[in-house]
């Protein structure tokens, strides 16, 4: 009778479905003028007005400056490129933790000088706690896969696993639907279902008696 030693490697995946409770709005202020100083001045004034108005609103958790740029506007005249004016653009990420006021936030921003918007993004406020749940599920499913494979192969696993590691750094969040909102008050925002995914790799030693 001989003993055969080997290694068995499995991957476990855990998913937790949660409802998004935070949304991030990308709101921009764009100004143009024939004079670069005027384009910058007007942009600064309007951007400050937007920020001031949003800071006073219920549900606005955070406002971050995402990007700022000043660039010439060109046009061709008789085959020659000339500067027609200048454009100044400021982009803000506005984090809102009350989905019922998203339309009001857009309306207030546009009323105070905003004139650009991009797709909104959904988030989960306590993502790390949900990720830990998904990670526990991933480990359990990895164990279950290993035990099933060992039983089918008639080998006995040694416990605990000799190696265990995450296959990704931190949570992977998957939005089940894509949303875009036009630059208007728009329709009410429905809570989004999101999946938080964790994956682990487990390696076991096993014995087989021949």
What features would you describe in this structure?
The protein is built from three helices and ten strands, in the order ββαββαββαββββ. It is of the alpha+beta class and 210 residues long. Helix 1 runs antiparallel to helix 2. Residues 176-185 have low confidence and may be disordered. A hairpin with a 2-residue loop joins strand 3 (60-77) and strand 4. Helices cover 27% and strands 46% of the residues. Strands 1, 7, 8, 9 and 10 form a five-stranded antiparallel β-sheet that branches.
What's a quick, concise take on this entry?
Helix content is 27%, strand content 46%. It has helices at 36-55, 102-111, 127-153; strands spanning 3-19, 22-33, 60-77, 80-96, 116-117, 121-123, 156-157, 163-166, 172-175, 193-209. Strands 1, 7, 8, 9 and 10 form a 5-stranded antiparallel sheet that branches.
The helix/strand class is alpha+beta
Rg estimate, integer Å: 27 Å
Point out poorly predicted stretches. 176-185
Q: What proportion of the residues form beta strands (DSSP E)?
A: over 45%
Largest sheet: 5 strands, antiparallel
Instruction: Give the topology string: H per helix, E per strand.
Output: EEHEEHEEHEEEE
Oligomer: single chain
**In which range does the helix fraction lie?**
25-40%
Q: Per the principal axes of the C-alpha atoms, what is the gross shape? A: elongated
Overall residue-averaged pLDDT value: 87
Instruction: Give the terminus-to-terminus CA distance.
Output: 6 Å
Total number of beta strands:
10
Q: What is the count of DSSP helices, taking H or I runs of 4+ residues?
A: 3
